[in-house]
Amino acid sequence: MSLLAIKYKRGHLEILNQLLLPHESVYEEITGAEDGWQAIRTMKVRGAPAIALVGALSLAVELLPVSFSSKEELKNFVAEKLQYLTTARPTAVNIMEAAKHLTLFVKDSSSKINDTETVKVELITEIEGMLEKDLSDNKALGRLGAEHMLQLVGADKLKVLTHCNTGSLATSGFGTALGVIRHLSEQDHIDHVFCTETRPYNQGSRLTAYELVYENIPSTLVADSMVSLLMKTKGVHAVVVGADRVVANGDTANKIGTYQIAIAAKHHGIPFYVAVPSTSIDLSLEHGSDIVIEERPAEELTNVAGVRIAAPGIACWNPAFDVTPAELITGGIATECGVFKPSELKKALAGKN
């Protein structure tokens, strides 16, 4: 089994089909933006950082063999493909930020470089650099988040709860919230990790449990509905989750079920952390109510592994995300730039976006 979600070398991209985990480890080739869009939409690849990476890299592999008659043709091609890729899943901000950055990059390069082929290669190189940067950002925020958590909690060995999947499978490697946990484990500061199953798509039981077992981190799987009792009886020291979009006031969109975990943590006096790269922070939106929440097909709620478990004829509501208000993020928001209170976020990262 592999924990590498993305395999890339110039001109060739493969993604680990996460719909088949933990039973099968199957890589599928992505030959262009249409393949990338489909892989993101169907959740063969998921996690806000990985979505942005696969989207951008799918454009890179499609670009490489194509010859363009002019820089204008190249710019239009890139803009059209990137705009399309941003429609695959609307809530995660990373791919939208990547699209903005790459659109501006090719425009700027075109104004400085005469040769169209050189502009194209420069763009591909810029996209490839996103992989390395994501990994370094993950490691930095993992370290900073872990250090902050240890200091705030005041214990040497921590019991930590996490939700959904935020590890190597959701990023270029290492992870965000699971990166914090991984750093704690590497420094021998983990007593135990609890992961939720994360219904209805079971990213916790299928993916996070898989990563924790692979890394030999002491861990226990719990149902989403067990969280309050878990906090009351098992001595959880902290909660850490990832995010698909954090807005200027600190309100955070993450996998459905995060909001209720934050409420329970607040009630039990347990620090609640969000761990994200700065690319997941959207300072253009002020409040969580401005975030578009994706709704997924009913079948993801009524069926498990292709077998219907719900009564036929029942109506379904299946939002993929909820928004945790900033006041419930009591531990802080861990980024590669530092750990901030929600109220500090806008000022701290104003120069990054």
TrEMBL record:
The enzyme's E.C. designation: 5.3.1.23
UniProt-listed Gene3D superfamilies: translation initiation factor eif-2b, domain 1, Translation initiation factor eif-2b, domain 2
Reactions listed under catalytic activity: 5-(methylsulfanyl)-alpha-D-ribose 1-phosphate = 5-(methylsulfanyl)-D-ribulose 1-phosphate
Enzyme class: isomerase
Metabolic or biological pathway, per its Swiss-Prot or TrEMBL entry: Amino-acid biosynthesis; L-methionine biosynthesis via salvage pathway; L-methionine from S-methyl-5-thio-alpha-D-ribose 1-phosphate: step 1/6
UniProt superkingdom: Eukaryota
Keyword annotations: Amino-acid biosynthesis, Cytoplasm, Isomerase, Methionine biosynthesis, Nucleus
SUPFAM superfamilies cross-referenced by the UniProt entry: NagB/RpiA/CoA transferase-like
InterPro entries documented for this protein: IF-2B-related, IF-M1Pi, IF_2B-like_C, Initiation_fac_2B_a/b/d, M1Pi_N, NagB/RpiA_transferase-like
Active site: D244
GO biological process: L-methionine salvage from methylthioadenosine
Keyword Isomerase applies: yes
A Pfam entry, by short name: IF-2B
GO MF annotations, alphabetized: S-methyl-5-thioribose-1-phosphate isomerase activity
Subcellular location: Cytoplasm; Nucleus
HAMAP family cross-referenced by the UniProt entry: Salvage_MtnA (MF_01678)
NCBIfam families: eIF-2B_rel, PRK05720.1, salvage_mtnA
Similarity remark: Belongs to the eIF-2B alpha/beta/delta subunits family. MtnA subfamily.
Annotated function: Catalyzes the interconversion of methylthioribose-1-phosphate (MTR-1-P) into methylthioribulose-1-phosphate (MTRu-1-P).
Name of the protein described by the UniProt record: Methylthioribose-1-phosphate isomerase
